[in-house]
Write a structure and sequence with these properties.
7 strands; alpha+beta; 152 residues
């Protein structure tokens, strides 16, 4: 099996991360609110520091990134990005399972938000996430390790 490795993102990675975000998310943001390039660039730079991102590489080729933040009572997955050429090959599943393992080890639920127009909701459902709320544009999803759930 091909090896996925992770490293913390640096400031130098952020242009690549933003372009990957733009490539993978623009159509869903456009369908939801409309795409304003300056607004997206500014919001991304202001709200998502390099320290929140890990870069994923497959056999030394950068294929994706994720932004994960530890909160007092849960882990928050801000985004999981996989380059289009590497989607639907199980990489997202492997990355998310790594994050789920981290949540289990920290004994915290894993939470995220997904736009209603984004088909990734089905991906998260397959990996055990359940809808815990919603607003006009997105579903709030939550995953808790079943062993952890028994302790709560």
């Amino acid at each position: 099996m091909n090896s996925i490795t992770f490293r913390k993102a640096s400031k130098a990675d952020m242009e690549w991360v933003y372009e990957t975000f733009r490539t993978t998310m623009k159509r869903y943001i456009e369908d939801t609110w409309g795409w304003d390039e300056l607004f997206q660039q500014y919001g991304f730079a202001e709200n998502l520091p390099p320290s929140s991102f890990s870069i994923a590489a497959l056999n030394s080729v950068t294929v994706g990134a994720c932004s994960l933040t530890e909160k007092p009572d849960h882990l928050w997955l801000e985004m999981l990005l996989i380059l289009p050429d590497y989607q639907n090959q199980g990489l997202g599943t492997r990355i998310l399972q790594t994050i789920q393992t981290e949540a289990s080890l920290k004994q915290k639920p894993l939470r995220l938000s997904v736009l209603k127009v984004n088909p990734a909701r089905e991906f998260y459902r397959r990996l055990g996430f359940e809808i815990s709320g919603e607003d006009t544009w997105s579903y709030k999803l939550s995953w808790t390790d079943s062993d952890l759930q028994q302790l709560l």
